[in-house]
Design brief:
It is a single chain. This protein is an alpha+beta fold. It is built from eight helices and 23 strands. It is elongated and about 120 Å long.
């Protein structure tokens, strides 16, 4: 009995140990997953209507290109049982093109299918052949007309992401159908050739079907894949900034839209140090428009991080930077109420007839947050006040810690982004003074007054002018809307494309 109880006890201990071990494994795995997951800094959504518009535009461009196409000459030879035949097909021109209908289907969870239906093509040209067998020589030449009608093509692709954040593409299916191919020869002994030309129209049709899908797969699996693999995933902004927009997860496919998820982080050029932030999860948004873009406040915070890290958030303010009629604001001896000496009488007493200079610097990363109520920015820094004396020397007066919070709302007027400051508040604390006690309340009250009558109106005048949304050549954004949401701004828009110049297509001559 004792042995049974001991075995039972050991078994219970082993069971508890196994449960604890599994709990540790689960916790570690969850921690690993959460630590490696990267939320996007911006997200791009293309709706089914946007995809169909894009395919229509592409087809319009292709249609114009086909009608201008210079078809290459074909030269070749082949051996048949009774001898060798050399042939040339030259001077080919497209005489007609029936533009197909187009439709893009989003395959939920997998990819896209592009459907082209009822295309047609007519061509004419010259033909010539030579037959040689020993001393026997036969040749003939003439012209031809060719017609392809009822051509349909369905191509399916999947999109993904490689380890470096580049998009990837693979063909997953291709079907091509051609209702009819008709060829008519003219000149020479064409009356004879045309008697059996129907016997080769079917093989030509089947060959075209196979070649079109072969070319389509090659265009996707070789050409498009190679281009995407070398697609830039970052862009240099100005001389000192790099914007990283690589994919952080594979594109997602829903019934009505395609989403892509991008890093969206600014770096200092030559220093790709990650900012100590994590982008918040984007809230859902519904729209029937072609394009929806989410922009996270994470992007703004990475800008602030780089500015602080590189020591850019420093500035020395002197009266030389003020407008001529406002230079007196920084005097210690005052002739008006808008004067530093009036605000801090100790400065006027200790250093009369001097001008004040401010040494300003950030003490931590500035942060930004976006909500349905608008934008909120927080800045913490130090401001050291000096008196520039008549002999040119600088005398320290006092030091302060400052925190500033600014709130604003944004709006979109056509394609101009405007902003309005709704609140600008600060907390100022004197940390050291060489000219006597300076009440914090005085500085805070003064800042509030100056903000109300000077700073906010000036900034709102700039915000009212706004900035234009970056434009793309030949692309016009219509019905553009902007909305503030939790930790992001999302923009919805439709797109119109109007090419300013005609694209020309030209193929090279090739031997067969």
């Amino acid at each position: 009995m004792a042995s049974s109880r001991e075995n039972f006890s050991n078994g219970a201990k082993a069971c508890r140990y196994f449960q604890q071990l599994m709990l540790v494994v689960v916790v570690v795995c969850l921690g690993f997953v959460s630590s490696t997951q990267i939320n996007p800094g911006f997200q791009f959504r293309l709706s089914r209507s946007g995809l169909n518009y894009g395919s229509t535009v592409a087809l319009d461009i292709l249609s114009k290109g086909v009608q201008q196409l210079k078809v290459p000459d074909i030269h070749g030879s082949t051996h048949i049982r009774v001898g060798k035949v050399s042939y040339d097909v030259t001077s080919m021109h497209v005489t007609g093109f029936t533009k197909p209908s187009t439709n893009v289907v989003i395959n939920a969870g997998s990819g896209l299918t592009w459907q082209l239906n009822n295309a047609g093509l007519s061509m004419d040209g010259r033909w010539h052949y030579k037959f040689r067998k020993g001393f026997i020589r036969i040749q003939d030449s003439g012209s031809f007309d060719g017609h392809v009608s009822g051509a349909s093509l369905t191509v399916s692709v999947s999109l993904g992401q490689d380890a470096s954040g580049h998009p990837t593409i693979s063909s997953t299916g291709c079907q091509c159908n051609i209702d009819s191919v008709k060829i008519r020869l003219h000149g020479g002994a064409s009356w004879l050739y045309n008697l059996f030309i129907k016997q080769i129209e079917r093989p030509v049709r089947n060959s075209l079907r196979e070649q079109i899908c072969t070319l389509a797969r090659k265009a996707i699996d070789v050409n498009a894949r190679a281009r995407l693999a070398t697609l830039p995933t970052e862009i240099v902004v100005g001389n000192d900034w790099v914007f990283d927009y690589r994919l952080v997860s594979p594109p997602a496919f829903q019934a009505e839209f395609l989403d892509s998820f991008h890093k969206g982080e600014f770096f200092a050029k030559g220093d790709p140090t990650e900012a100590p932030y994590q982008a918040a999860v984007f809230p859902p948004a519904t729209s029937n428009q072609m394009v929806t873009i989410w922009v996270s406040d994470y992007i703004l915070n990475t800008v602030g991080y780089v500015l602080y890290k590189r020591g850019i958030l420093k500035h020395n303010l002197t009266k030389n930077e003020l407008p001529v009629d406002e230079k007196g604001v920084l005097n210690t001896t005052c002739t008006s109420l808008m004067c530093f000496g009036f605000l801090v009488p100790q400065a006027a007493t200790v250093y009369p007839n001097a001008s004040v200079e401010l040494e300003m610097m950030a003490s931590s990363y500035p942060t930004a947050s976006i909500s349905t109520g608008g934008f909120r920015g927080n800045f913490a820094g130090l401001i050291n006040f000096y008196a520039r004396l008549a002999n040119g020397s600088l005398a320290p007066m006092f030091k302060t810690k400052v925190s500033v919070t600014v709130s604003l709302t944004a709006s979109l007027n056509n394609t101009v982004l405007k902003a309005t400051i709704t609140d600008l508040s600060s907390t100022i604390e004197v940390t050291d003074s060489k000219i006597g006690k300076i009440p914090d309340a005085v500085l805070n009250a003064a800042f509030k007054l100056i903000s109300k009558i000077f700073i906010i109106p000036k900034l709102n005048a700039i915000g009212e002018k706004g900035i234009s949304i970056p434009s793309i050549k030949d692309v016009r954004f219509t019905n553009t809307k902007l909305a503030m949401d939790n930790h992001c701004v999302h923009i919805t828009t439709d797109v119109q494309y109007s090419p300013s110049e005609t694209l020309r297509f030209e193929a090279r001559n090739r031997p067969m």
